[in-house]
Amino acid sequence: MKAKEVPQIAGAHLFEPTPHADARGFFCRTFDAEVVRSVGLDPAAFVQDSVSRSVRGVLRGLHLRSGAGEAKLVRCSYGRIFDVVVDLRPGSPTYLGRAFFELSGETQATLYVPAGCAHGFQSLTDVSDVSYRIDRPHDPAEDVTIAFDDPDLAIDWPLPVTSVSERDRRAPSLAEVLKQREEGSPK
Predict the structure, then answer these.
(1) In the annotation, is 20 catalytic?
(2) FRET pair for 35, CA 20 to 30 Å: which of 15, 22, 57, 164?
């Protein structure tokens, strides 16, 4: 497994394993504490694992947490997704930077999303399973959502959006979220 820095998002990393395939299928290591530690992250900091299943065209995001934020490791364990990270950390050298990835069950690559960055993805296959390893217990009061179709972000989602949650459909624009932050509102 090797770690690569993501230049568009300071502190983000892509962890690329080496799947070993044969006639039975494949085997690969999807988490390695030593590799995570080698890029300055504490592997023991992750306290919660979650998984989502989405069908083709489903879009989830853009989500982040207020307060101390939430760092996460994201991996598409089955299928294929178009993954997006937006840096919303005001002091970051890549503030408002965006990075796009295709994560898949074939590569099993894992993306580290630093706290303070918005994250979202769209399923590109009939079924996509996405695994998350998160560094804080979930507190719904800290959930922040940004409109996935915000013109200021101009994200070119690869497929027509077939389904989003009601929360994502009603999400405020990036400008509204940034204004709320400046005014000291938790969301």
Answers:
(1) no
(2) 22
Is 63 a residue of the active site?
yes
Provide CB contacts within 8 A for 33, sequence distance 6+: 43, 44
pLDDT for 186: 54
CA atoms 116, 117, 118, 122: torsion sign: negative
Q: What is the pLDDT of residues 36-75, one digit of tens each?
A: 999 999 999 999 999 999 999 999 999 999 988 999 999 9
CA angle 74, 77, 81 (to 5 degrees): 70
Q: What is the mean pLDDT of residues 182-186?
A: 71
Catalytic residue selected from 13, 63, 112, 119: 63
Query: Could you give the CA distance from residue 84 to residue 98 in angstroms, rounded to a whole number?
Result: 7
